[in-house]
């Protein structure tokens, strides 16, 4: 986390922020936020925009760096310092906030996809077990066994994963009766 003055001067920074900027904490304090984050430390004309966006990418990559955007917005809204430097800072900061909001939305979409993929992967093992059960009982190919499960799912208006889980539970009970009902 970083604490900025109303003029966007760094007042305090934690270790995570210092690591993200590749600078020492002492080196950050007292610097304008855009001066502290040049695109390339060896480029004297770096304007800091790429450095700030790099922090957003650290957040997207899942590291522990977080910016309290709402606190920064409130502090910046109170800024009444005059001059061209403030206007330029406002312009840069507005671009940064837009990019940060876009990155946050992108991150939320990616987190949703990951959650959905994890659920699908967890159910995939159960579905594969059910395919094996149908194969053994019907003496058919894996694709044919899968089609039996799909047909059973459609006929009973039950999700495929639930049909697969029920077949696996029946097979585990081991009562010796046929597991897969009817011809599909």
From TrEMBL:
PROSITE patterns: ANTAR
Pfam family, one: ANTAR
Assigned keywords, A-Z: Coiled coil
SMART domains: ANTAR
InterPro entries (UniProt xref): ANTAR, CheY-like_superfamily, WH-like_DNA-bd_sf
Coiled coil regions in record: 93-120
Keyword flag Transcription regulation: no
Ranges of residues in domain ANTAR: 107-168
GO molecular function term, any single one: RNA binding
Keyword Coiled coil on entry: yes
Protein name (record): ANTAR domain-containing protein
